[in-house]
Amino acid sequence: MAALFRGSRTVLFSWNKHVDSAFGNVSALCTRTMASKTPVGFIGLGNMGTPMAKNLLKNGYPVICTDVFPESCKELQDIGAQVVDTPADVADKADRIITMLPSSPNVIDAYTGNSGILKKVKKGTLLIDSSTIDPYVSKDMAVTAEKMGAVFMDAPVSGGVGAASMAKLTFMVGGPEEEYTAAQELLTCMGANVVYCGQVGSGQAAKICNNMLLAIGMIGTAETMNLGIRLGLDPKLLAQVLNMSSGRCWSSDTYNPVPGVMEGVPSANNYQGGFGTTLMAKDLGFAQSTATSTRSPIPLGSLAHQIFRVMCSRGYANKDFSSVFQFLREEEGQ
Ligand code: NAD
Q1: Which pTM was predicted?
Q2: What residues contact 52, with CB distance under 8 A and at least 6 apart?
């Protein structure tokens, strides 16, 4: 039994570790007293990280933050966050840290690099990674963090910048169940739904599955709408019919990819904002690699991966992924 301190909270750990997978699935029993509003570290202040960290501030948590581009920290600094130079400096000052980074290499760098979190992490620190990354990297990070006496959890999100701003994200959480309550305390400040998915990496697994289905659904909606238009149907009428029939899906009724069908979606704004094609291609890459390692057939997921990758090389990289409709229309003329 070791008594640790996370902020001003007394943290009592009763370790009962056992490794039951190739990646080291460590479970630890722990009991904590009441949480308090001690500083929370935040690393990665991009499109998502900035509004998420703002919501922690709004909920009364002092925020200590950093980003590889110091100018990304300006908005947070202006509303009271403390900015430091490196992830190691964040770890020196906070014992609950959230990371929101583009992809696996950035997460590896922020945790294990020369100025990474693990250089100065305190025992008992709770590390929550909300980036969408390879679940095997999450598992590796958990094993490495555990060697330093820290706890790593994956908590990727569903919902875009709008949901992040309104604290309406859905968090899919993986890691030791005993730590879930501590993670939940912070995640509920930034999201409307927080779902415990299982051991570390499970949050990423759920996120990857969701995004693969989303990608397939969006391509299906885009090609269906395009065919209907070619057959002479009015796109709004076709969307109305689909949405009252068995072809209905989120991409047809909430995020329709055809300009003019819906207001307030990226297709109504030249595919600006929303969820970038590059990020979707990245997530499908994780679906592809995990499907290979688990020998799961994903013929449609693989095809979706290739389509979004080609789009990235044809000028769609920074457009919302629903621009696959525009991509298919342009392909027709070739
Ligand atoms: P972003 O590129 O806007 O922000 C990432 C930030 O991390 C940048 O400011 C970058 O400078 C910083 N960064 C990179 N490496 C760093 C390092 N080693 N140390 C410190 N800072 C570093 O990305 P985003 O749109 O905020 O997305 C973040 C994550 O959330 C991604 O994994 C993405 O897939 C996921 N996600 C995004 C959306 C969305 O709509 N944008 C939705 C759901 C999930």
Answers
A1: 0.87
A2: 42, 98, 100, 130, 164, 169, 190
CATH 3.90.25.10 for domain 206-332, yes or no, is no
State how far the Cα of 23 lies from the Cα of 281, in Å rounded to an integer: 26
Residue 100 CA to ligand 1 center (angstroms) comes to 5
Catalytic positions are 207
Instruction: Give one word for 212, left, alpha or beta, with left for phi > 0 and alpha for psi -120 to 50.
Output: alpha
pLDDT digits (tens, 9 = 90+) for 72-88: 999 999 999 999 999 99
State the architecture of 2-198 in CATH terms. Answer: 3-Layer(aba) Sandwich (3.40)
Where are the chain's structural domains? 2-198, 206-332
Q: How far is the CA of 102 from the centre of ligand 1 (A)?
A: 4
Per-residue pLDDT band at 1 (split at 50, 70, 90): very low
Percentage of the chain modeled with pLDDT above 70: 88
